[in-house]
Amino acid sequence: MRPGADIEGHRLITDDYVELTRRNIDKLTGEGGEVLRHHMELRGLGIINIKELFGISATSVSQNVDIAVRLERWNPEADYDRLGLEHSTIEFLGISIPLIGMPVAPGRNVATLVEVAARIHLLRQRGYRPLKDNN
To answer: Which of 15, 40, 48, 101 is paired with 5 by a 20 to 30 Å CA distance?
Structure first.
């Protein structure tokens, strides 16, 4: 998650390192370690404290993990799913969650792309299929 994103309803859980815990039969929870809790590294600025900069509502200790996004370098030769019809999963601690492979290139706003991927995932959970629904 990104700093300042509490405006859009997100909170920083951790930067880079996520500890996953299996909850119940089908739930994963992610959290960061205590040493860097509420902190993020920004190149050129160093380690920043998100809680102090944006307030406690911009952070959280843990969160359920419902989706994974794999960022990969854009390859013009690769054959990417352009219609969103392919659905992959990844397994952590015996629990499968949806996996979105997202090609990125310099100059792209990765935070916004990941936010859109999360919103699309929420819509899919509610049964929305853009190629079938014309609303």
So the answer is: 101
d(CA 33, CA 56): 17
User: Where on the phi/psi map is residue 82: left (φ > 0), alpha (ψ -120 to 50), or beta?
Assistant: alpha
With a cut of 80, say whether residue 83 has pLDDT above it.
no
Q: How many Å apart are CA 46 and CA 67, to the nearest integer?
A: 29
**4 compared with 8, residue with greater pLDDT:** 8
Tokens of 107: 């100059």
pLDDT surpassing 60 at residue 91: yes
Q: What angle do CA 107, 98, 78 make, to 5 degrees?
A: 45
